[in-house]
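Q: Given only this backbone (208 positions), what sequence would you predict?
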């Protein structure tokens, strides 16, 4: 493993952002249910919504990248997927998506607005810049080390193609959440359950 600090992975960034989003939403609900408490400022409400709109599609992107890019690459290389199949790793890569989908379908039902679509790739761009800036510092004696193989700038146009594919996939997931915000509002519990099950089946992976 090139990087040993778990906090540098996109998985950790998306988990932390999702957790912060839920913490802010929980505080909003608490103030609404508590007598005598002033409601949060409009800016707090806006930031809480933007946090969720950013985090929700990122969780699906993380799960999809593991299923369709990282796992096949490991199988094609060493073939040893023991680390990917570890219960804690499976939880990292799958539970975040499940939580975001359950929030959209069964819990708070926070909306994802197409007018805010630019916020999701901005988070991704920040992570890419972070990985590029930090690459020379992980192991200075070994040269630049990239957190994910598809972010390796020595790949030439392959790096640009990978980033464009990631962007398109992220936009698709954002669009799915935005569409669900509208369609699920007037549908029954079976439609909500199908939405969660279908997307989980699309991005989850548990074994070879």
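A: Predicted residues:
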């Amino acid at each position: 493993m090139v990087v040993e600090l778990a906090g540098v992975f996109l998985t950790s960034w998306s988990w932390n952002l999702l957790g912060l989003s839920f913490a802010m939403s929980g505080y909003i609900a608490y103030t609404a249910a508590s007598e005598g408490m002033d409601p949060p400022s409009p800016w707090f409400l806006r930031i809480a919504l933007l946090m969720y709109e950013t985090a929700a599609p990122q969780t699906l992107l993380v799960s999809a990248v593991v299923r369709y890019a990282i796992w096949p690459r490991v199988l094609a290389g060493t073939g040893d997927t023991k680390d990917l199949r570890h219960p804690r790793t499976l939880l990292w890569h799958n539970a975040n998506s499940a939580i975001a989908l359950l929030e959209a379908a069964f819990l708070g039902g926070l909306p994802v607005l197409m007018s805010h679509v630019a916020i999701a790739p901005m988070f991704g761009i920040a992570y890419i810049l972070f990985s590029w800036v930090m690459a020379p510092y992980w192991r200075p004696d070994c040269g630049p080390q990239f957190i994910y193989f598809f972010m390796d700038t020595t790949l030439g146009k392959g790096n640009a193609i990978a980033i464009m594919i990631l962007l398109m996939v992220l936009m698709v997931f954002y669009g799915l959440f935005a569409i669900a915000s509208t369609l699920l509002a007037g549908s029954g519990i079976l439609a909500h359950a199908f939405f969660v099950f279908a997307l989980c089946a699309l991005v989850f992976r548990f074994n070879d």
